[in-house]
Amino acid sequence: MSNLKISPEALVHHNNLEYKFKDLINLFLKSYTNVNHSVYRKIVKKVSRKYFRQQKALKKEQLEEAFPRVESRPVDECELELIEREKEHKLWLERENLAQLNWKANKERNEKILLKVKEKEKRLEAISLSKQSLKVNVTPLCYVKPAFYQQDWQRCSYFAKTGVCKYANLCSKSHLISSNEILTTLIFPGMYSHMLMGYELLKNDQNNDESLEYDENDILDNFKNFYDDVVKKLKTYGKLIQFLVCSNYLRHLRGNVYVQYEKECEAKAAFQDLNGRFYAGKQVFCYFSHVKNWQNAVCSKFLHNCCDKNRLCNYLHVFADPYNEFEIRDQSYMIKKTEYSLGAWSSDDEKSLSSKENFVKKERKKRRKRSRSKS
Predict the structure, then answer these.
(1) Tens digit of each residue's pLDDT (9 = 90 or more) over 189-206
(2) Residues 6 or more apart in contact with residue 301 via CB below 8 angstroms
(3) Which pLDDT score, from 0 to 100, does residue 96 have?
(4) What is the CA radius of gyration of the chain?
(5) Residue 263 near residue 241, CB atoms below 8 Å
(6) Are the beta carbons of 282 and 193 closer than 8 angstroms?
(7) 190 φ/ψ sector (left φ>0, alpha ψ -120 to 50, else beta)
């Protein structure tokens, strides 16, 4: 309205009298002793508002004269009831049509889902039958140790301790495993996931409000259900020595499940049956690993609740065992005991180490004797 221009000759009513726009402004200015630009603008705005109000009222009166109101005739109560019934009947018919359309859509959708489920069951049955018919003896996934393994190629420390590396095949260091090593550990990459472990929530984890919707108790309950379901299945293949689930947010550690058996044949049986199966709607894969020293694999600062990197650490941050069945310790000595009890020969490396240790012990004894004799 302020952008509209008003001609100075336009008529404005004031105190039952008609004034021109410019004359009414001069009339208001007479009441001020000191007139400046701000006072002038204030009066112009006041008079223009008054003019626009009067114009609006005139238009309203013209419309009422052109289209006079027609007084409605009195309506009986019976007629009102009939009108209401007709309205209710129309609304009921509309609701009924919508309900029938929704029912048909749900029926078609359920039929499609049933067809997909039946096809999936048929495919799984065919795969299981083919596996049973083939009965392939799966050997552990281990790498052959090359001649330059110990001399030229430095071993990756992350892979040696955790069995995985964030650089994967692009790592400049060695990810090789000795062919003579007994492999009793299986790694299930990305098997476990909960409501906060999705990639979309991890993009801006610090500024994301969706993580506030869930409590730690919800995550612990979810993990407990997963623990009860998976450990029960894994124990059917043999004695479990270790079961760890990573809570790290890094891509190569997120949701990894570490399982260690007492014997290699038990790990082979679990690998044969579980590799490629479906769990919680997704296909699960596993591979053999050399990791047995869990004290080196798990972050030591995490065990003391002082890790600065939190869940972005390259070492394992694991969920707490709800039943305290497994301890985080070095399990490699158990394998060595069983190996020697079966009458296996020790390796050349172990022989050289033992001879060096014996030499160091003898030297210490000689030094102690000399020191005693001098005293």
Answers:
(1) 989 987 666 544 444 455
(2) 307, 308, 313
(3) 92
(4) 42
(5) no
(6) no
(7) left
Q: Please report which confidence band the pLDDT of residue 216 belongs to, taking 50, 70 and 90 as the band edges.
A: confident
**Mean pLDDT value across residues 323-351:** 55
- For the chain, the three-class secondary structure string (H helix, E strand, C coil) is CCCCCCCCCCEEEECCEEEEHHHHHHHHHCCCCCCCHHHHHHHHHHHHHHHHHHHHHHHHHHHHHHCCCCCCCCCCHHHHHHHHHHHHHHHHHHHHHHHHHHHHHHHHHHHHHHHHHHHHHHHHHHHHHHHHHHCCCCCCCCCCCCCCCCCCCCECHHHHHHCCCCCHHHCCCECCCCCCCCCCEEEECCCCCCCCCCHHHHCCCCCCCHHHHCCHHHHHHHHHHHHHHHHHHHCCCCCEEEEEEECCCCCCCCCCEEEEECCHHHHHHHHHHHCCCEECCEECCCEEECCCEHHHHECHHHHCCCCCCHHHCCCECECCCCCCCCCCCECHHHHHHHHHHCCCCCCHHHHHHHHHHHHHHHHHHHHHHHHHHHC
d(CA 61, CA 81): 37
Q: Is the pLDDT of residue 147 over 60?
A: no
Q: Bridge-partner residues for 259, per DSSP?
A: 186, 243
Residue 40 reports pLDDT greater than 50: yes
Question: What's the token pair of residue 296?
Answer: 């080196």
Q: How many other C-beta atoms lie within 10 A of the C-beta of residue 256?
A: 23
**Residue 34 region, left (φ>0) first, then alpha (ψ -120 to 50), else beta?**
beta
Planar angle of CA 267, 273, 275, nearest 5 degrees: 85
N-terminal to C-terminal alpha carbon distance within the chain:
112
